[in-house]
Design brief:
This protein has two domains: 4-78 and 110-261, no CATH class; 269-409, no CATH class. It is 66% helix and 7% strand. The protein is built from 21 helices and five strands.
Length: 411
C-alpha cells in the first residue's frame, strides 16, 4: 500500500508552483520547476504523483548523481590511488567543493539539496513506473565548463572554489530565493556564470538541450499503443523555460544530439604549446648560461631547482602533507618537464596516500568534514586531494618565476 502522503494529495502544495504542461510526439509532459533546497518542492512532487497518473518520471539527474542520492555511502568505495593515477583528483576535489556548498545549505535549512529528486524517484518506485535520468554526467559538464573558458578565468574559478571552502557566513535568504530561479551548479559558480557566456552555455544552455533530447529519446521508446503516455518531469526552476523551449523546438536527431553534448572536447593545444615553449626557452637559457660561464650556469640551474622544487614543496607544506610527501614534491617539481602528463601534484599525493593511508573513518566523515575549512586538513582523503591541487599550483608558479628570474640574470 502506498504511504498516506501519496494517496491523499495536498492540492494546496501545488499553489504557486511553476508547472508547465506540453505535448511532444504524442507524449504529454508535466514539467515541474523546483528549488533544490525547498520543502515546498518536495511537497509539490508528492502532490503531483498522488493526484495524477504518470507512466514515467524524469528527473534532472545523471546516473552518478542519482546513485549518490540513492546510496549516500557509495563514495566510501572510492579508490583514492586510482583517482590520482587516472588524473581525476582535480575533478573529485571540485565535486567535493560543490558537495560542501550543498552541505551548508542542508545544515542551515534542514533539508538535503536534491530531496525533491529523491522524492520523485521514490514515488516512481512505489508506483512501479520507470525513472528517466535525463541530465548529463556532472563530470562531463564540469570538464566542458572548464575548457570553455580562458586561462585567466580558470584561475578565477579555482580561486572562487577555494574561497568557498573558507566561506563561513550563512547563505542569505535572498540567495536561496535566487537558487529557486537558477541551477545548483550555476548557483555554486554564480559569480562566474553570470559574467561568462561560455560558462553559462556549458552549465545551463547545453544541459537544457541535452535534457530535452533525452526526454525525446525516452519518449520515442514508449509503447505507442499504450492507453496513455504521460511523464512527470522534475527539474530545477532555472531550467524550466530553456528546456521547455528546446523540447518544443528541437528537430535534430535526439540520440545524435545527446552523443554530441556528452563528449568532452579536446583540450586547447595552445596552453601545452606555451608550456613546452617556456620550458624549452628556460633550458636553452640555462644552456646559454653554462656557455657563458660555468658559475652562471650553475646559478641558473640552482634557481630552477630551488624555485620549482621549493614552491612545489611549499604547496605540500601548506596542505599539511607528510615530510615524505613534501620531499616528493620538491623532487618532482624540477623534473616535471621530463614527465609529460604526470603532474608533480600526483607524485606528492600518491606519496601522501601511501604514508597516511585513508582510514574507513576518513571516508565515512568526508562529507561532513569538508563543510568546514579545517576538515580539508583533518580528513586524510580531503588533505590528499588538497595536496595534489596545491603542489600542482606551486609547480606552475615556480616554472614561470624561475623562467623570468633565469632569463633576467642573462642580461
Amino acid at each position: 500500500m502506498l504511504p498516506d502522503e501519496m494517496t491523499a494529495p495536498d492540492v494546496t502544495a501545488l499553489e504557486g508552483q511553476p508547472i508547465q504542461r506540453m505535448e511532444r510526439d504524442g507524449v504529454q509532459y508535466v514539467i515541474l520547476g523546483t528549488a533544490h533546497v525547498s520543502r515546498a518542492s518536495v511537497q509539490a512532487v508528492n502532490a503531483l504523483l498522488a493526484s495524477e497518473h504518470f507512466d514515467a518520471v524524469a528527473v534532472e539527474l545523471c546516473p552518478s548523481r542519482a546513485h549518490g542520492i540513492r546510496d549516500p555511502e557509495a563514495f566510501k568505495q572510492m579508490d583514492l590511488f586510482q583517482v590520482i593515477r587516472q588524473g581525476k583528483a582535480g575533478m573529485v576535489a571540485a565535486s567535493l567543493v560543490l558537495g560542501s556548498f550543498q552541505k551548508r545549505l542542508a545544515a542551515q535549512y534542514g533539508i538535503e539539496p536534491g530531496a525533491e529528486m529523491k522524492a520523485a524517484m521514490d514515488g516512481a518506485d512505489a508506483r512501479g513506473v520507470p525513472v528517466w535520468l535525463v541530465d548529463r554526467e556532472v563530470g562531463t559538464t564540469l570538464k566542458r565548463a572548464w575548457r570553455s573558458v580562458g586561462f585567466f578565468q580558470r584561475f578565477g574559478l579555482m580561486a572562487g572554489m577555494l574561497g568557498s571552502v573558507f566561506e563561513r557566513e550563512d547563505i542569505a535568504e535572498e540567495d536561496i530565493e535566487k537558487l529557486k530561479q537558477s541551477d545548483l551548479l550555476e548557483g555554486a559558480f554564480s559569480e562566474f556564470a553570470s559574467g561568462s557566456a561560455p560558462l553559462y552555455h556549458a552549465l545551463i544552455a547545453e544541459r537544457d538541450s541535452f535534457m530535452a533530447a533525452k526526454l525525446r529519446e525516452h519518449g520515442a521508446a514508449m509503447d505507442p499503443a499504450a492507453p496513455s503516455r504521460k511523464v512527470l518531469v522534475v527539474i530545477g526552476a532555472g531550467h524550466l523555460k530553456g528546456m521547455s523551449t528546446e523540447l518544443a523546438e528541437q528537430h535534430d536527431d535526439a540520440r545524435a544530439l545527446t552523443d554530441e553534448l556528452a563528449t568532452t572536447p579536446p583540450p586547447a593545444k595552445w596552453p601545452k604549446v606555451l608550456a613546452v615553449t617556456l620550458v624549452l626557452a628556460i633550458f636553452a637559457a640555462i644552456g646559454y648560461a653554462f656557455y657563458r660561464s660555468p658559475s652562471l650556469g650553475i646559478d641558473a640551474l640552482k634557481n630552477w631547482i630551488l624555485l620549482t622544487g621549493g614552491l612545489s614543496a611549499l604547496g605540500a607544506l601548506i596542505a599539511g602533507a607528510h615530510p615524505l610527501s613534501i620531499a616528493g614534491a620538491f623532487v618532482a617539481g624540477p623534473l616535471k618537464p621530463f614527465r609529460p602528463g604526470i603532474p608533480s601534484g600526483a607524485v606528492s599525493a600518491m606519496a601522501e596516500a601511501w604514508v597516511r593511508r585513508p582510514r574507513v573513518l576518513d571516508f565515512e566523515r568526508l562529507r561532513d568534514d569538508i563543510t568546514h575549512w579545517t576538515g580539508w586538513w583533518k580528513n586524510r582523503v580531503a588533505r590528499t586531494l588538497l595536496n595534489f591541487f596545491l603542489v600542482s599550483m606551486g609547480t606552475i608558479a615556480g616554472e614561470y618565476i624561475a623562467g623570468v628570474h633565469i632569463i633576467r640574470s642573462l642580461f
